[in-house]
Amino acid sequence: MDTKKEIKSLTGIRGIAACWIVAYHTWLAGNHRVSGYIGTFLLHGYLAVDLFFILSGLVMSMSYGHLFEKRWEVSDYFSLMIRRIARLWPLYIVTLIVTGILTYFIEGKTFPVVVWLANFTMIQTWGIGESINGASWSVSVEWAIYFIFPFIFFPALKMHRIVPFVSFFILVLIIKIGENSGIQRKGPLDIFDPHSALPLMRCFAEFLLGMICYRISFSEYGFFHSKLISVIIQTVTFASLFVSGMDIVSVFLFSSCLVTLTNERNYLSRIVSWTPIYYLGVWSYAIYLWHRSFLFMIGDVWNGHHTVLRPMIIFVILLIVSCLSYYFIEQPWQKKIRRLDRIFSQKSYPGIKISDNIGVNNL
User: Cellular component terms, GO, for this chain's entry (predicted)?
Assistant: First the structure.
């Protein structure tokens, strides 16, 4: 399997996860609470962020792992960071400013200069302060992991049998500390307190799982590529989201499910690769960053005579804004910032020897 080829099913599942988060926060914005299994599923919307973290570990390994498999140069490190800045920063800054302005005019809330500076540099959730755009806390912790990705890629893949246990231990530790400190929100893993190290630990543990997903997906293992096994894993994963207190189980099921989605021939892969769902994935970063601003417009959507119509209209507008943001902010600025990559690629830097021979099939 070509690791550099886009796997549309992974893009599509990202779009579904983004919409799940929007539905979760829209539901929380109102007074009405859906009961039963549907309510439990909606309440687990925060787990979509965990899915994002695992998916990031997988996709980052697919996209940049080849740079750090053998002897790599400092220029490779700079290239990685420039590309991540190009991907994250332009739309992040726009939504940050817009959300900050809306927060001031609608809620009358202001933020200290140090918080603004931390948010502009995407380091606010490193124990510094709150995210002005509430959704951006996850971008901040992922940004931290990108700095260490080149250094952990080889060890994680080399110790692939141990890593899942390390991730499990970290997640259990997060839940226990969260329970004792009172910073859990709607569920065991719903922890994003900016003054705690737990959000960083949450991202790190799940990013590692994503790297193991990469190792399994592009190895000789045939177990996860069986259509029957794929259906079973995907069904159990979905079912776990209707049961309370299953966060860690769901996280590991997410990992298994993503491995099955790297096989584009199974049924769910074909569904989430469908063009409308695929484009939700293409716009997912914009959907995720913009939805906090749109929540200001939703208000108590569950009261009055427009409990369904109003959020639907706003969601359609959100999709339009996200689409325009992708084509007129994300893409143009990515190209401009990536030009800096040429500067570093033309310079000579001392190499950093990680391994003489490493490849997925050699592990």
Answer: membrane
225 burial type by CB count under 10 A (0-12 exposed, 13-18 middle, 19+ buried) = middle
Cα diameter, the chain: 66
Please give the full DSSP string across 250-278, using - where no structure is assigned. HHHHHHHHHHHHTSTTSHHHHHHTSHHHH
The CA–CA distances, whole Å, from 332 to 26, 84, 87, 286, 338 equal 31, 15, 11, 14, 10
The closest of 166, 119, 150 to 292, measured between CA atoms, is 119
Residue 180 phi, psi dihedral angles, 5° rounding: -75, -30
63 pLDDT above the threshold of 50 = yes
Selection from 58, 202, 85, 71 nearest residue 147 by Cα: 85
Q: What is the pLDDT of residue 86?
A: 96
Number of other CB atoms surrounding residue 354 within 10 Å: 17
**Mean pLDDT in the chain?**
88
Distances (CA, A) of 190 to 47, 171, 240: 7, 11, 16
Q: Report the C-alpha gap between 249 and 290 in whole angstroms.
A: 30
Distance CA 200, CA 192 (A): 9
Question: Between helices 275-282 and 284-298, what is the axis angle to 10°?
Answer: 80
pLDDT reading at 305 higher than 80? no
Q: Report pTM.
A: 0.92
